[in-house]
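Case study 2.
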Amino acid sequence: MDARKNTRNEAAALALAREADEIYATKGKQVIHLDLKKQKPTPAALKALLLGPTGNLRAPTLRIGRTLIVGFEEDTFRRLFT
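Prediction:
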């Protein structure tokens, strides 16, 4: 899905997070990993990771099984896809 044409708002982004067991989110050069089976971040913390400045889900976002990957960081992609 092209995120520029099919935007996901805050409610849809949080719904995706509720379906995930773990989230990898790139913020700048930092990759934040949340294990949602062990950690219970607040909705505000999730929004800070998932939403961009427009208030929509950041791109690229991929869901693979119960893992949500937000943003691009080459080493993370390489580790998760090989």
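The first helix runs from residue 10 to 18.
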